[in-house]
């Protein structure tokens, strides 16, 4: 894959200075920036994506958007990140501070455990990096 293709896939908009981010958003943005760099550098094996569960809410048409997203396959409680690599996969949920998994996130974690899909919670980008190294997905 050419660097140009990766750069197009990894392109991200700039966030405005007036946008207020929550603590979990900050963790996820820092982690995603690292993921982009590791992908472009070839240090992260496989592919990754962020599940945009938060996109279903907060707008005028949120209930309609949420219903459509659910009909398309959005699973409430799905983790923030999904990683796929040759012969393996893993999912990571980001949590800020001492926040616990929601009941639906616990259900999703149980589903992963029943299918032997590695499921972890990170509380910082550094912790996420450690998980990926532990899984052998990051060198």
Number of helices: 5
Termini separation comes to 19 Å
Strand order of the largest sheet: 1-2-3-4
Low-confidence parts: none
Strand tally, please?
A: 4
Q: Which fold does the CATH topology of the domain at 45-139 refer to?
A: Trna Endonuclease, Chain: A, domain 1
Mean pLDDT: 89
Q: Give a short account of the largest sheet.
A: 4 strands, mixed
Query: Which architecture of the domain at 45-139 would the CATH scheme give at its second level?
Result: 3-Layer(aba) Sandwich
CA radius of gyration: 16 Å
What order do the SSEs take from the amino end to the carboxyl end, as H and E?
Answer: HHEHEEHEH
Find the structural class using helix and strand composition: alpha+beta
Which of globular, elongated, flat, extended, rod-shaped describes the shape? globular
Overall CATH class of the domain at 45-139: Alpha Beta
Helix content: 40-55%
């Amino acid at each position: 894959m050419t660097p140009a293709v990766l750069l197009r896939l990894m392109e991200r908009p700039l966030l405005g200075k007036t946008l207020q981010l929550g603590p979990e958003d900050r963790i996820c943005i820092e982690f995603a920036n690292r993921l982009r760099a590791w992908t472009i550098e070839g240090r992260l094996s496989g592919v990754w994506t962020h599940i945009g569960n938060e996109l279903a809410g907060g707008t005028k048409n949120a209930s309609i958007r949420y219903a459509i997203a659910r009909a398309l396959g959005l699973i409430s409680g799905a983790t923030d990140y999904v990683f796929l690599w040759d012969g393996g996969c893993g999912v990571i949920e980001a949590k800020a501070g001492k926040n616990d998994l929601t009941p639906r996130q616990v259900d999703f974690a149980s589903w992963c455990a029943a299918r032997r899909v590695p499921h972890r919670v990170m509380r910082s980008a550094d912790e996420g990096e450690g998980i990926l190294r532990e899984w052998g997905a990051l060198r």
